[in-house]
């Protein structure tokens, strides 16, 4: 079971790494050159440029990337289905596979619909909490920052 879990985990990370890498790259490319020129004139180190220019400007993009991966992690279906079929035993059967098996395989639509609605509300609530927590953490960092020399 541990090997199956690790294989599914590695495959899921491999599957979504390009998107997660592309989002911060796009965020970095959208930062105007004027910020980098001002930092160079001020003699800022690479660490200072990263901490005070790049990271704050990319906060929105990083929040989106984390939220997309967080929500998508609940909808994992393809990797464990193709790799292990939910096995060995039921060790890699995820909730999305269980819902599909309940609705399509057993044609038990009532409980499957109710279960999927509850599943959706849980994901929505967790995403809302995560988003608000990330926003408040970012605001606290900006509020304490002030003027940097």
Topology:
Layout: H1 2-29, H2 33-42, H3 46-57, H4 59-74, H5 78-83, H6 95-105, H7 109-145
Helix pairs in contact: 1-4, 4-7, 6-7
Q: Can you walk me through this structure?
A:
Helix content is 81%, strand content 0%. The chain has 149 residues and is mostly helical. The radius of gyration is 21 Å and the shape is elongated. The model has no long low-confidence stretch (mean pLDDT 84).
* Rg over alpha carbons: 21 Å
Low-pLDDT stretches are none
Q: How many β strands by DSSP?
A: 0
Mean pLDDT: 84
Tally of helical segments: 7
Query: Which range best describes the helical content: under 10%, 10-25%, 25-40%, 40-55%, 55-70% or over 70%?
Result: over 70%
Strand content: under 5%
**Helix/strand-derived class?**
mainly alpha
Give helix and strand order, one letter per element, not per position. HHHHHHH
What global shape is seen?
A: elongated
Largest sheet at a glance?
Answer: none
Distance between the termini: 53 Å
Features:
149 residues, mainly alpha
Short description:
This protein is mostly helical and 149 residues long.
């Amino acid at each position: 079971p541990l090997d199956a879990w690790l294989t599914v985990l590695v495959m899921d990370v491999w599957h979504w790494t390009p998107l997660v890498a592309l989002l911060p790259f796009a965020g970095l490319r959208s930062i105007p050159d004027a910020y980098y020129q001002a930092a160079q004139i001020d003699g800022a180190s690479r660490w200072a440029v990263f901490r005070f220019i790049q990271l704050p400007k990319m906060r929105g993009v990083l929040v989106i990337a984390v939220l997309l991966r967080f929500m998508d992690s609940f909808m994992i279906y393809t990797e464990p289905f193709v790799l292990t079929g939910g096995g060995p035993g039921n060790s890699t059967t995820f909730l999305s596979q269980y819902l599909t098996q309940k609705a399509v395989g057993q044609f038990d639509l009532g409980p499957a619909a109710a279960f999927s609605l509850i599943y959706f509300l849980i994901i929505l609530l967790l995403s809302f909490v995560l988003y608000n927590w990330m926003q408040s953490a970012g605001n606290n960092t900006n509020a304490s920052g002030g003027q940097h020399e």
